Amino acid sequence: MALERKTKVWIVDKNVENLQACTQIVDAAQFLRVGETVAFPTETVYGLGADALSDEAVEKIFMAKGRPSDNPLIVHIADKEQVNDIASSLPEKGAALIEAFWPGPLTLILPKTERVASLVTAGLDTVGVRMPDHPVALALIKQAGVPVAAPSANRSGRPSPTTAEHVMADLAGRIVGVVDGGATGVGVESTVLDVTVEPPLICRPGGITREQLEEVIGEVAIDPAFLPDAAEAPRSPGMKYTHYAPEGEMWLVDGEESRVYEQMRTMLAEAKRHGRKTGVMATMESLPYWRQQQVADVVISVGSRSELEQVAQHLYGVLRQFDDEQVQFIVGETFPRSGIGMAVMNRLEKAAGGRILAV
């Protein structure tokens, strides 16, 4: 399987007038039109795109990422009307959510049309669709003239990329190119909501919170694996495996602050005794404490506990920093599961492979 190739980087200023006509966008879009893979920024993370109507093109996404082909992809569109090309019908609640949140970090699961490549949906009769809120993404999709299937632009299992540099670190030589539009904003992926069931079901928490959804359409159900009582023993099959994971072993410690810190110190000391390079994923509030304690080799703040949007934005970058520092054992705090905290904890639990210790 010959994957190695020269990966192009198109640097684009997202504030340029008429982005769709700029040379870099035109060049990158041409590759999408002929069935190649191109990474690009969205408001959440960088995505790895291919023509969603071509199984041959979509297969290149799975090859580049090393992603199982039974894992469905999200289709990105550049105009609200395009949803009619991808979905065979649009429930009333779906239409209301489109008006409220598109463009934005919300993916709707809808009945699919026959035009959508079978690899996109992994054989399902539904498809995830979203309209990203990023000028570079919208310009690229419009210029390509095709809906674009795009999971996160990282090797499967690795932390999702929030910069073009992250994409290159994982996929250089495996994809045609990356459109560099700077760092992303939200930091965690879109919320995935199934509106083919009643009440609509959150399949993945993300940039749009359950509370925001319920303000528009009323009751929204949620996978029990995302609820607080799932922290001690994750029941979702996917939680058996690490996703968004750093190279080092990661643990989360949940409980009252003083007991959490004591347990984390004990775990760090034990790891050091075994000769492992240690790290703490701290918050702005705990950063002075951990620096004063000097019990870990690397201490990195992920943001403020009072600003969970900030934590979401920085999360993947921090996990990659631990890799850059070659940290072998990482401990971190947990966060409240309200608002975007539900998405933060979902990603952290998967990054830790379900290793959560309650104290």
Automatic annotation (TrEMBL):
One GO cellular component term noted in the UniProt record for this chain: cytoplasm
Domain of life: Bacteria
UniProt keyword tRNA processing, yes or no: yes
InterPro entries: DHBP_synth_RibB-like_a/b_dom, Sua5-like_dom, Sua5/YwlC_C, Sua5_C, T(6)A37_SUA5, TC-AMP_synthase_SUA5
Domain YrdC-like: 22-208
Binding positions (L-threonine): T44, H76, R130, A150, S190
Family: Belongs to the SUA5 family.
Gene Ontology MF terms in the entry: ATP binding; double-stranded RNA binding; L-threonylcarbamoyladenylate synthase; tRNA binding
Localization: Cytoplasm
EC number: 2.7.7.87
Swiss-Prot/TrEMBL keywords: ATP-binding, Cytoplasm, Nucleotide-binding, Nucleotidyltransferase, Transferase, tRNA processing
Listed name of the protein: Threonylcarbamoyl-AMP synthase
Matches recorded under Pfam families: Sua5_C, Sua5_yciO_yrdC
Gene3D superfamilies: DHBP synthase, Threonylcarbamoyl-AMP synthase, C-terminal domain
Binding positions (ATP): R67, N71, T126, S152, S160, R204, Y244
Catalytic activity: L-threonine + hydrogencarbonate + ATP = L-threonylcarbamoyladenylate + diphosphate + H2O
Signal sequence extent: none
GO biological process, any: regulation of translational fidelity
EC class name: transferase
Source lineage: Bacteria, Bacillati, Bacillota, Bacilli, Bacillales
PANTHER family in the cross-refs: SUA5, THREONYLCARBAMOYL-AMP SYNTHASE
Function: Required for the formation of a threonylcarbamoyl group on adenosine at position 37 (t(6)A37) in tRNAs that read codons beginning with adenine.
